[in-house]
Each structure stands twice: as C-alpha cells, then as structure tokens.
Amino acid sequence: MAKKTYDLLFKLLLIGDSGVGKTCVLFRFSDDAFNTTFISTIGIDFKIKTVELQGKKIKLQIWDTAGQERFHTITTSYYRGAMGIMLVYDITNAKSFENISKWLRNIDEHANEDVERMLLGNKCDIEDKRVVPKTKGEQIAKEHGIRFFETSAKANINIEKAFVTLAEDILRKTPVKEPNSENVDISSGSGITGWKSKCC
Amino acid sequence: MEQLPESSPALAFEKDAFQLTVEDVYDISYVIGRDLLKISNAGEDVSELQFRIVRVLEMFETLVNKYNLSLEELKMERDNLKSELERILGDSSSGHGTQMLGPNKLVVDLKDPNRPRFTMQELKEVLQERNQLKAQLLVAQEELQLYKSGILPQAEPAMVEVDLNSPPTNNPTPPITREEAKEEKTTIKKLFSFRRK
Fold this sequence. Notes:
By secondary structure, chain A is an alpha/beta fold. Chain A has helices at 22-31, 72-76, 94-98, 100-110, 134-143, 159-173, 189-199, and strands at 8-15, 44-53, 56-65, 84-90, 116-122, 147-150. Chain A binds chain B through residues 2-11, 42-46, 48, 59, 61, 73-74, 77-81, 83, 112, 114, 173-175, 177, 182-183, 185-187, 195, 199, and chain B through 120, 123-124, 127, 131, 134-135, 138, 142, 146, 151-152, 156-160, 162-163, 165, 167-168, 171-173, 175-178, 180-182, 185, 188-189, 191-193, 195-196.
C-alpha cells in the first residue's frame, strides 16, 4: 500500500469585506507570520495546512477570496466546493460588520446547504479603535446558529483555535472510514455502525 | 496730461455710439456747455435751451452708464462660464482615466498603461491555472519530501494528492476518502454520500 500524507481533505473558504484581514488570518494560520502591508487579494488564492484531529491527518485547503465587489463573480463560484466557510469582519470597521448579513445571504445563495459556517471578528488587538462590541458579534452568531470568535492575526489570538474548531465541526459530520484503507468496503457493517454512532 | 486740451474733449463726438463711456458723455457736456456760453455771451437768451440740453445729457449719461454696466455683467458671466467649462473638462481628463457617461458606462483612457484590458472570464481562467499549478507544486514538493525521507520506494506510484477540481465543475468535491473508492464501488459511494441527508 502506498503511504498517504493525510486521511481527509477539507475545503474551507474565507469571505468578508475588503481589508478585514482574511489573507492575514490565513497567513497566520498557514505560515505563523504576519505582514502589515496591505495587498488586496486578486480574485482568489489558497493555502494548504495539515492538522491532526482525533488521530486523523486532515489536509485543509483554505481558499482566500478577494473582498472587493469587482471580484464577486469569481469568488462566488468557489462557494459550492466549500465544506466550511469563515465569515470575517473587522471590529474597528462598523460597515464590515453590517455587511455580514450580506455575506450570509451570499452563502445561502451559492454554497452547499450543509456547509459549516463560522463568524470571526478580526483585529481584536486594536481595542482602542473598536466600534463593534463583542456582544453584537455573539448575538448575530447566535441568531444564525454559528460559532463565533474574536481573532487577531497580528497578535495571534484565536487563529489556530478557529480553524481547528471549524475542522472539528466538519469532521463530526463526515462519514467515518478506516484511515489509509482505500480498498476497504465502505458499506461494511463496521463502517455504517461507526457512522451511525457519530451521527446520532 | 492732454496735449490738445481744446480739441480732445471734442473727440468724444467722433466715437462709435456703443464705445461711449460716461467720461465721453462728460466731455460732450463740456463742449456743448462751452458752445452755449459763447452764444449767451453774444447776447442770445438760451437759458431755456440750456436746461433742456442738460436734461438730455443727463438721460444720455444714465443710458451710457446702464449699457456699460450690463455689458460688464455679461462679460463677467461669460468668463465665469468659461472657467467653469475648463474646470469640468480638466476634471474629466485628469480624473482617474475614466468618467461616468451615464448609468453603467465608463470611458477608458487608451493612453493609460493601467487601463482595464482583460475580461473577468480571462482573469478567472488565469487564476484557475495559477491555483492548479500551485496545487501541483505543493504535491510535487510533498512527494519529493517523501522520496528524500525514504518513505516512498522509487517504484511506487505517488498517492499524495490535492483536490484540483476547480469550483465551476459540478462536483461538490466530497472529502478525498470518498473519491478514492475504486470504480466498482461507485454505487456504494453514492449511497454513502446520500445517507447523510
């Protein structure tokens, strides 16, 4: 048997207004680094990071979208393949928070129905410029039944936690299969039992 | 000062009517007044005529004044409109290379090296290709690492893979576990993904 480098591949997507820090959040997670210069993402980009959850190697392919309106026809075409979507706003930018409802509507329109969603209030290190109270983020997340974290790519707050939590939530919904066993009969009793126990 | 003090006020009589200024009217008044004085010195009674002429000259003064003021106003108005027009033309050409023509219309400056030149479809294709090549590079790097560390024997086909399906394809791109099932497992594979509903 050939040795595989991972057991599962999860596709994630980052969306939100331009300048809220989507690329920085991803860069912190994938490369554990931060860059202050603002370079607007052109259309769509991605990064890969492998994490280990419950003894499984999970490869995360994370798509980073451009927030600018002019790229929307390109970025929305990537919603469909996503298993998890992170909605990012900037706690120092009220407009970016108001637009979260718009981004949620975009998900409803373009993404899979069972996609895992998560709300992130980024730049939480800049407390003196905060205009969106944490409670407002919590409230909108609760209304939509999704998880919420305040993050800082710069100060490395909750970044890893957010990605790992999202991956765990997807893993919980993923049918169980013997790792590294490509030829295993997935309709076998053990497989179904395993899946049932996770599901119910 | 005037070189010909006697003749210069009289020049006002020779001017074009529309070129007359209030000063010209005063010159004319001066000349007429002087002439009337000559007549009265000759013993003629011209006082009645004198008042009438003064009255006519006053009316003349008012009319010339009014005409010149109106002319001045029109000139100012014209200059204002001229500079306004220049400002608008300047704004539109030095602006951002583009200008709103009407709803959803843009003008592109063909001399601007950064003018929009490619379609959204072209950008989409270039980005897809970039991302595919990037994914392939990552796969190749990983494989190389495995060969280097001796985990992968030379003859084995590499099983490392990144899902390269571009989003516009209709596959909702399920986890790799499902994709890897062999061809003959297709039906089961389908059942497997359906039962999550």
